[in-house]
Specification:
The protein is mainly α. It is built from 18 helices and no strands. Belongs to the EzrA family.
């Protein structure tokens, strides 16, 4: 009995699963049936009746028959086939043959997709045909208006087009047979071919419009504006040459002759409507002419510059030569008292040699100006370079002269600095002797002796003949550094001695009660009398800090106040 129940449950489950799957397939069949009905009842033939408003000849008639045959095949063949396949699929589903049903459903979807593609193709081609007819009708009228406008322009302004008139008229008259061809194609129902004619005519009309706009402008440049500029340049060249300007380097005559020949060539190209090559070349020619105007103007400006600055440059050159000779003599005199580095001592001599070369260069420049066989622009460049070289030498000589004058000033400053250093060292020695200290450590004595030695070195260097100020300055710097260190260490030592004395005095109150403090203070006193002040300060400070933490800071402040009062006094 138990096995029978299990078998029944399994069979029941399989039956329920089968019902669920069959339901899904039924849903698919319903969808496919609906899609088939949409195709079957789509009003294609109603859409095709739109064609009847056109000329039912030629291409239009062929396309109409082609579309009708395609859709007849869809309805009479494919839809009937789909109905049969739907019936087969339903039988497979009822018999629970779901795999076969799936295969049939997939085949139906492929048929429906093929029918949908045919429908979309017919609609698309139909819209294109009808749209072409409408666009053709509108655009051909616009093109005809452009054609009439172009003919009117050519008739009204024939002179403006010059040699290009004939070619333009031919291009414009080519529209007439194209209009006739368009009309024939339209009457014959060949709207798509007529569309191609319209597109070609539209492009050509744009080109014609561009030519009608550009040709008169370019022709005006070739026949009027550029020839006027050539005439003006020739007159300008002649007038400048009469005024002794040298212009051969510009090769202006050759350029203008070649340009006049080229204008004839460009005119011939324009007669052939070759605007694309003529227009950019004319722009280049205009730029070239402007450049020649600039070059002629540059020559005028250069002449004015040369005439104005030539004499001034000569005067400046003469003055710099004179000053450089004086500085050279001064350098010889100064070298008897002061040592000059070899490279500096050669500055006046080198300047004179350079000035000699510049004088020759300037004389050649003056000769070229008088001969009037050189371009003023090149003469200007030469004069500018000469002036810049003169100014550079002038600056070098002035700087050198200033250094010579500063030697005496530097010597006096060095002697004053030496006196100042001597006073600092003497004051440091006086403070050490005046201070209440047991004695001066050997290290401090050595520092003082070194400072005295540095003073002696400075004195000796100031007695050299000739005087080497670089060496004096170096010795002064060494002596100053050494004496500053001596003064600093002396003040520190005096301050430490006072601090040791005050700390020991303060620590005496704890000697009787604290043996360790007493021992440290004894060591401090011993080091103090041996001039070991750093050691003495460390031991005394350690002793007082042991007995009374923080006392050292108060003692240091008291000592600083005392030192300040002494310095004020």
């Amino acid at each position: 009995m138990q096995y029978i129940i299990i078998v029944v449950i399994v069979l029941l489950a399989l039956f329920i699963v089968g019902l669920v799957i069959r339901r899904k397939h039924n849903v698919v069949i319903q969808r496919l049936e609906q899609e088939k009905m949409q195709i079957q009842h789509y009003p294609i033939f109603e859409e095709l009746t739109k064609v009847k408003s056109l000329n039912m000849n030629g291409q239009t008639e062929e396309m109409f028959e082609h579309w009708r045959n395609i859709w007849t095949e869809v309805i009479d063949v494919h839809v009937i086939k789909i109905d049969s396949m739907l019936f087969d699929a339903e039988e497979y589903i009822d018999r629970f043959k779901f795999k076969k049903a799936s295969n049939v459903e997939q085949a139906i979807e492929e048929y429906i997709a093929k029918c949908e593609k045919s429908k979309n193709q017919i609609i698309s081609e139909l819209d294109e045909l009808i749209g072409s007819e409408e666009k053709n009708r509108i655009e051909i009228e616009q093109i005809k208006e452009h054609y009439r406008s172009a003919r009117k322009t050519l008739l009204a302004h024939q002179y403006s087009f010059g040699p290009a008139l004939s070619a333009l008229e031919k291009r414009v008259e080519q529209f007439v047979p194209k209009f006739e061809e368009f009309d024939e194609l339209t009457v014959d129902g060949n709207y798509l071919q007529a569309r191609e004619i319209v597109l070609a005519l539209n492009s050509e009309s744009q080109t014609i419009y561009h030519l009608l706009s550009e040709v008169p402008t370019l022709l005006s440049e070739i026949q009027t504006k550029i020839p006027a500029a050539i005439h003006e340049l020739r007159n300008g060249q002649r007038e400048m040459e009469e005024q002794s300007y040298y212009l051969n380097h510009l090769e202006l005559t050759k350029y203008l002759d070649n340009l006049e020949e080229e204008l004839e060539t460009l005119k011939s190209k324009l007669a052939e409507l070759d605007v694309e090559s003529v227009a950019p070349r004319l722009n280049e020619i205009i730029d070239e002419i402007e450049n020649y105007y600039d070059l002629l103007e540059k020559e005028v400006i250069a002449r004015s510059y040369v005439d104005k600055n030539c004499d001034d440059t000569f005067e400046t050159l003469t003055e710099v030569v004179k000053v450089t000779k004086e500085i050279s003599n001064e350098a010889v005199y100064v070298q008897s008292s002061y040592h000059l580095p070899e490279n500096e001592a050669e500055i006046p001599k080198a300047g004179l040699k350079q000035l000699e070369l510049i004088q020759k260069r300037f004389e050649l420049l003056v000769t070229r100006v008088r001969d009037e066989k050189s371009a003023y622009s090149s003469l200007q460049e030469e004069l500018v370079e000469i002036s810049e070289q003169i100014d550079r030498i002038k600056d070098e000589q002035e700087q050198f002269s200033s250094r010579l004058k500063n030697l005496r000033i530097d010597e006096n400053k060095a002697r004053a600095k030496l006196d100042s250093l001597k006073r600092i060292l003497q004051e440091t020695d006086r403070q050490l002797n005046k201070a209440n200290i047991p004695g001066i450590p050997e290290e401090m004595d050595a520092r003082i002796e070194e400072a005295e030695e540095q003073i002696y070195i400075v004195i000796q260097s100031l007695q050299d003949i000739p005087l080497n100020m670089n060496r004096v300055q170096s010795n002064i710097e060494n002596a100053e550094k050494c004496i500053q260190e001596v003064s600093k260490h002396a003040h520190e030592m005096i301050e430490n001695v006072m601090l040791i004395e005050r700390i020991i005095q303060y620590g005496n109150r704890y000697r009787g009660t604290n043996p360790k403090v007493n021992d440290l203070l004894l060591e401090s006193e011993h080091a103090f009398h041996q001039y070991r002040y750093i050691k003495a300060l460390e031991d005394a400070a350690a002793a007082v800090e042991m007995a009374e933490p923080g006392a050292i800071k108060r003692i240091e402040e008291l000592v600083q106040d005392e030192l300040y009062e002494k310095s004020q006094y």
